[in-house]
Design brief:
The structure is a homodimer.
Chain A lengths: L1 H17 L2 H13 L1 H12 L11 H17 L3 E5 L3 E3 L5 E3 L3 E6 L7 E7 L19 E3 L2 E3 L3 H20 L7 E7 L9 H8 L9 E4 L10 E6 L1 E10 L5 E2 L10 H9 L23 H9 L4 H8 L9 H9 L3 E8 L10 E2 L2 E10 L5 H19 L4 E10 L2 E2 L5 H14 L4 E5 L4 H10 L2 E4 L15 E3 H18 L6
Parallel strand pairs in A: 5-8, 5-9, 9-19, 10-18
Antiparallel strand pairs in A: 1-4, 2-3, 4-8, 6-7, 7-20, 10-17, 11-15, 11-16, 12-14, 13-15
Chain lengths: ~500, ~500
């Protein structure tokens, strides 16, 4: 009882002192009081293994989409579930894609309409990959909430939902109309969403003014606004030889082994110093201007902290600007692994019959996925040809996502700066993102709406890696940021 | 009834015609009548996932050893379970090795004593590797018994057990004393067995005259006697960089990736035409003599059948002698796979932090594992050094098994020829084996006993590969071969 009374007193005092901020304080107070529920909601969502890259997990992903739909319906949103067609699997079979869930809260023509985009599918994760905790059982350790998808992108989607819910719970009018567009295929390239966005251009998107994406993270401990992302061209290079795996004792020496071929062609992608060796691939990269260099110089980025955070002995570049440029606006090649070879513990003496390398090229303006696909395919076939191997090489680009770049002088970014200042008391950093949010570019090209990326994830959240997490602080303060942002956007002058 | 009568007539007729063979016919008749039990016994054994390379499966392996022990005790053998010490795991922890099971049947000093060596551990197998059936559920399709370990080496061990059992069931005296030595670590290099063999040289092995190993297969549809095997030097090459996996978008471009380093050093092991590129490794290989070439020319080996069986478009060599020589008496390098990289379905955009390549070199006379270890380690470190990578390379030889070669003019081989002729009606082929039976060389060096390899596995059994099998024919006729062989060995003149 005592505690309750003193809290009330504090609220009244703050209310008196800040005038307009009374309602904001009510909202943040509401968020603080409900944070355990928010953490539990995230735990429920993380417990669903909504791995979109593995078709055997598709039922879980469908279940995840159902949970989102139900939640938005409970909040009395105008919910619609939109079909995005089918997916053709490698074996030729065709399955339906998970439907996209949309919802609308408010349709006041005098208000701006903000569309929040998010996704609830996740990257693969297995405990034995090196997770300290079960990746599908959200576990709090020292203020961090560990679980696959915690930061990418389940907590941000929930934070947006909770932001709207807070306004409604306090019976406060939403300062803008809010729409949600939540998908389940982001991690594999937002399959089907391009077509849906085009089809909904003059329907769902017709009254949307701005699109907000919170599918990225800060660069440092300082909050950030993101104005660009790299794209991604993800390749499968498959070498197939014997009709089944052979024994290296019984058959070794008689066979031209697919693994030897595959290793040899992979070794022609990138040099030890990070130079891409595929002819022509870097030709289309935009010039690095002096103006750009200056923006990078102002970014609060400590190389030593970054180096220690990721735990490497030396970074690829020894100065901040080159490093940021190669993270944000130059392409790179990563070899992710090989499917079909022996990958377990122990000493299997197998000659794998069919091995598929997975590698990807992060794309930047003005690279075109279709051009990159041809350059990579031609290059690998040319190198393979020289080996005169009897094995078969197949090269396929399975993701071709374009980069995205925003205008940092737009009012959306000004609103973002004010919201960050209100919640965190600091100016946000202006950053780019090395990763890919494929749909950003599609939104820009097709809907021609203005887009902002407003991240709440921490710089060390370990997206796509073992021990992914979001801190309780970022999750809860992030919810407040979204509440504030809706308010700030309402102050942007209507055209 | 009619059928029974006619069978009895045939037996009597054959008995009259062949004299001594009466008892052999009783034995083969017994085998025929009990073949369903034999298949069921194999099914029971295959159902135990006794994968010795995966320590998480150690309980299953222990259970397998217990089943063997129990079976030999039921048969009233003089059973002993021998400790072979401990195994140090990669994380530094120490666990006991599975004990070796031995048994003795008969101790008549006037008879020869034959020691049968076998193993009941298996290579890894997962349904998703491409097995048409559950690898641990023995499944009969068109006369073939599919299951992991069916041919390597569970059916041969059972066939030896059933051979002894048949003599005992018919109350017939064993023509020789028979000892069994069954281990559970063969697939990872027979850990601990070297020490045991040395320790038992003047105990268990003191009354042993001959050692028989049936851990290999025929070369064609014709039964074979095997007189040589290759050894194996199995390596782990581990490149370690960041302290945990990173995201190719978030961090790609800033990091010297361990996978890129690993691919580059793996690409320096073997050329497209099969030449080993590691300096010095082939220096110790024995000269290929004209006499040897002639033996190879006489082997009934159809390259086209072999090519089609393994399902490749072209073999490494275009003539029989070169091909057999490179399968049997020249070394080769196989890259088996990479642990720690992304190996699943889908499109994970990970930068793996620590990746371990598994590759092996099949060794031949007169290569020395310790020398090869130094040559490979020095070479990989030299190549890695040139890359000036900040990542860490560790190279380790985890198996170093020597090759083995027997004298084909020995009486053991003459006995083998007679036994094959009796059961199959043909002369056996004299062949070598590209794979490794590490213990053969140890038996030879330490016990100085004469050794024969007497295979019953088919040429297309798919050892270590998906869909391993043994045919019902080879399993059952192989049991008869072992029965006949015990008889033939009893005719070898005592010194």
């Amino acid at each position: 009882m005592m505690e309750c009374v003193s809290v009330c007193v504090v609220v009244l005092m703050m209310s008196a002192a800040r005038g307009h901020s009374l309602r904001f304080n009510d909202l943040t107070d509401y968020v603080n009081k409900h944070q355990e529920e928010y953490v539990q909601a995230l735990r429920d969502w993380v417990s669903i293994e909504s791995d979109s890259s593995d078709v055997t997990k598709r039922a879980e992903l469908q279940r995840m989409m159902g949970v989102v739909e139900e939640k938005l319906r409970e909040m009395k949103g105008n919910v619609d579930v939109m079909d995005v067609g089918t997916q053709t699997l490698e074996d030729g079979s065709i399955i339906p894609l998970p439907k996209v869930v949309t919802a609308a809260f408010g349709e006041d023509e005098n208000k701006h309409t903000v569309c929040v985009y998010g996704h609830v599918d996740v990257q693969p994760a297995r405990r034995e990959d090196g997770w300290a905790t079960d990746p599908y059982n959200l576990t709090e350790i020292n203020g961090n909430l560990y679980g696959r998808g915690a930061s990418d992108n389940k907590a941000p989607v929930l934070a947006w939902i909770h932001a709207v819910e807070a306004y409604k719970a306090l019976d406060m009018e939403l300062p803008v109309n809010v729409k949600f567009l939540i998908e389940g295929m982001e991690e594999t390239g937002s399959n089907g969403l391009d077509v849906l966005v085009a089809a909904q251009r003059d329907a769902f998107f017709s009254d949307v003014d701005y699109i907000v994406i919170s599918d990225c993270g800060w660069q440092s401990a300082r909050p950030a606004l993101t104005y660009g992302t790299r794209g991604n061209a993800y390749f499968y290079a498959q070498v197939e030889g014997p009709k089944q795996d052979l024994h290296s004792g019984v058959d070794g020496g008689a066979v031209i082994e697919p693994m030897t071929d595959l290793i040899a062609i992979l070794d022609t992608l990138i040099s030890a110093s990070g130079e891409i060796l595929i002819p022509g691939v870097t030709d289309a990269v935009a010039n690095f201007t002096e103006e750009e260099r200056k923006i990078y110089e102002e970014v609060d980025f400590d190389m030593e902290t970054y180096r220690r955070t990721i735990g490497v002995e030396r970074l690829m570049y020894d100065n901040k600007v080159d490093l940021l440029a190669h993270l944000w606006r130059f392409p790179t090649v990563s070899i992710h692994g090989i499917e079909g070879a022996f990958s377990g513990h122990g000493t299997k003496t197998v000659i794998p019959a069919k091995v598929t390398a997975k590698f990807s090229i992060r794309q930047v303006p003005n690279m075109e996925p279709a051009v990159v696909e041809k350059q990579v395919t031609d290059h690998l076939h040319a190198v393979f040809e020289q080996r005169k191997s009897p094995n078969k090489l197949k090269v396929k680009m399975v993701i071709g996502a374009k980069p995205w770049l925003a205008d940092i002088k737009h009012a959306l970014y000004e609103a973002g700066k004010r919201a960050v200042k209100r919640v965190f008391g600091v100016e946000p950093e202006l950053i780019r993102e090395g990763g890919t949010i494929p749909i950003a570019r599609t939104f820009q090209d097709v809907t021609e709406k203005d887009i902002i990326m407003l991240p709440i994830g921490g710089f060390d959240d370990g997206l796509h890696s073992q021990n992914e997490k979001i801190s309780r602080y970022n999750y809860i303060e992030g919810t407040k940021l979204f509440i504030a942002y809706l308010h700030e956007v309402s102050h942007i002058k209507k055209d």
